[in-house]
Amino acid sequence: MESKIEEKAKTKATLISKGLDKLFPNPKCELDYKSAYELLVAVILSAQCTDKRVNIVTKELFKEFNTPQKMLTLTQEQLEEKIHSCGFYHNKAKNILAMSKDLLERFAGKVPSSQEDLVSLAGVGRKTANVVIGEFFKGEAIAVDTHVLRVSNRLGLVKTDNPLKCELALNNLFEKKAWSKLHLQLVLFGRYVCKSFSPQCDRCPFYNICQSEDKKQLLNFAD
Ligand code: SF4
């Protein structure tokens, strides 16, 4: 039997889910890709970088290097040069090459669909794996990135800085069939409404239930 606190948290989650459905009825991943491999590379590049910038870089990169085999014809330095503007290019290039080698050696060059196999690839963490599962394989998984972590805390859905704890708490609050959509909606909500430094509280549908310290007080023009 659920405790009163759990019951209250689920009621809040339902309210937020309905609000997000109104705000973002058909949320879409903003990364461009044509295959699971391209998506995997794009997600690795997107760490600490905007999707817009990643799309500019991958548009050129994938013209020639859109499979693990082709990617491995590049040296670390050559790849670094091509992805330089995404930031953290040294580690990102290293991870993309290691992941590509792993894919060829252990999965015949094919991106696996299970979380266990995905996270076994060099340079692929749980967040990246969950994005690929939800977006490409249409499975159910909540990828917790910086936006999801921030807005989940601000909305009072979770109280943790730990992405895994956040993911598990969200899994518990929302129906499994909604997980992947919820991930996209929370990312968009964090990107366009509940922004990191300047949350748009005046147009936030959750203003009345938000208890975040970052919430901006609205000006009352009636006074
Ligand atoms: Fe974010 Fe402001 Fe909405 Fe709270 S009221 S969830 S801080 S945008």
Detail the topology: elements first, then pairings.
Layout lengths: L3 H20 L12 H10 L5 H14 L3 H4 L4 H8 L5 H19 L7 H5 L6 H10 L10 H9 L8 H11 L5 H14 L31
The structure holds iron/sulfur cluster.
The site of iron/sulfur cluster (SF4) has 14 residues, from loops.
Structure description:
The chain folds into 2 domains: 4-26 and 144-222, Endonuclease Iii, domain 2; 36-135, Hypothetical protein, domain 2 (Endonuclease III, domain 1, Orthogonal Bundle). The protein is an all-alpha fold and 223 residues long. α1 (4-23) crosses α11 (179-192) and α9 packs across α11. The model has no long low-confidence stretch (mean pLDDT 94). It starts with a helix and ends in a 31-residue tail after the last helix. It contains 11 helices and no strands. 56% of the residues lie in helices and 0% in strands. Bound molecules: iron/sulfur cluster. Residues 154-155, 193-194, 199-201, 204, 206-207, 210, 212, 214-215 line the site of iron/sulfur cluster (SF4).
Outline, from the CA principal axes? globular
Bound molecule types: iron/sulfur cluster
Counting H and I runs of at least 4 residues, what is the number of helices? 11
Full CATH superfamily name of the largest domain = Helix-hairpin-Helix base-excision DNA repair enzymes (C-terminal)
Helix content: 55-70%
The H/E string reads: HHHHHHHHHHH
Euclidean distance between termini CA atoms: 47 Å
